[in-house]
Amino acid sequence: METELKDITNLKNNNKSQSEEEGKEKDNQPLLQKSEGDSTEISYTEKDIQELEKKFAAYVRNDVYGTMGLGEISLKEKILLGLAMITLLPIRLIVTVAILTFYYFVCRLCTLFSVPNREEGEDGQEDYAHLIGWRRNVIVAFGRFCSRAILFTNGFYWINETRRAVEKSPNEDQSKEPSEESERPGAIISNHVSYLDILYHMSSSFPSFVAKRSVAKLPLVGLISKCLGCVYVQRESKSAEFKGVAGVVTDRIVEAHQNEHAPLMLLFPEGTTTNGDFLLPFKTGAFIAKAPVLPVILRYPYQRFSPAWDTISGVRHIVLLLCQFVNHIEVIRLPVYHPSEQEKEDPRLYADNVRKLLATEGKLTLTDIGLPEKRVYHAALNGFLRQR
């Protein structure tokens, strides 16, 4: 992660443009990992971190557990956390695993004697999105139920959903009434705050989504993801493979729009998670298909622990989440967004307009930073914490 560390040094000299440019070169590296042969050590100060927090505010944690969940907490919070770890944590873990195991066997039963869709090549992706009839109905029904059960088990007892109408865009043809077929979107477009986003959408719409290739090999979750019809991608893949995945996603969106039996695609155009108060620039992949999309806004109100997965490790996030007795989700579902002819011809315009709509309706702050800047911030935080 040598480039990111150089970015921090440049920040001290107020050379912001160079740091952003160098950070983008590392877009395909995993978060929180060093590059091979990287032995750079840089001294960090509180002032450096404060400067970064101002610049990268979309990734700053503001809950009682502080930066990366490692901040100093009060005695009262320590007592509450200790009690939760010996009561709530084990119960919730056991019940969650039991629900996952139960749903795994449901998927196993429904896929018996069924041949999965498989792409050409030794490492071709496979899924069971093509299943129809009772098999598909059982997978979807139990999938939605089990997803909601997992959320309930982990403290999301109520989900506050709001369906909001918005005014038609001035460039939308007022004389055309959308047909029943065209009312069906091809994809769900959502802001990205946490891995919990996927559980909510599974409980609501049961869509397929883009996941890391390694997910397909995970115990229990692997088969479930194949039944969802996930499209797998390797972060470190060459650009040619990413283009291939983009083509698969586009085809899935078109199919979902035209075929009511096909699962919708769930897409997070930001490409990474934030603290929930900001909206990053959208990638255009979700909008190339020219199909209508369903905008959905997710928020996680909190008092103690923020469910946002921004600058905190996965294990620590899960432990603290399960130790919080009540968690909250607020959802704003907007009407299906039909692109204008101009938006169909310009995916960037389409993406920007949907992004502005989500920001306006969700009261989210637009920011120009993205995944490269998140890597810079993570690298600085890790370096700072190692020195303390």
TrEMBL record:
Region span, Disordered: 1-39
Domain Phospholipid/glycerol acyltransferase: 186-301
Pathway terms, separated by semicolons: Lipid metabolism
UniProt xrefs under SMART domains: PlsC
InterPro entries associated with the record: LPCAT1-like (IPR045252), Plipid/glycerol_acylTrfase (IPR002123)
GO molecular function: lysophosphatidylethanolamine acyltransferase activity; O-acyltransferase activity
One GO location term (cellular component): endoplasmic reticulum
Protein's GO biological process: phospholipid biosynthetic process
Record keywords, A-Z: Acyltransferase, Lipid biosynthesis, Lipid metabolism, Membrane, Phospholipid biosynthesis, Phospholipid metabolism, Transferase, Transmembrane, Transmembrane helix
Compositionally biased intervals (Basic and acidic residues): 18-28
Major site of localization recorded for this protein: membrane
A family per Pfam: Acyltransferase
Keyword Transmembrane attached: yes
TM region positions: 79-106
Localization terms from the record: Membrane
Protein family membership: Belongs to the 1-acyl-sn-glycerol-3-phosphate acyltransferase family.
Database matches in PANTHER family: LYSOPHOSPHOLIPID ACYLTRANSFERASE LPEAT1, PHOSPHOLIPID ACYLTRANSFERASE
UniProt protein name: Phospholipid/glycerol acyltransferase domain-containing protein
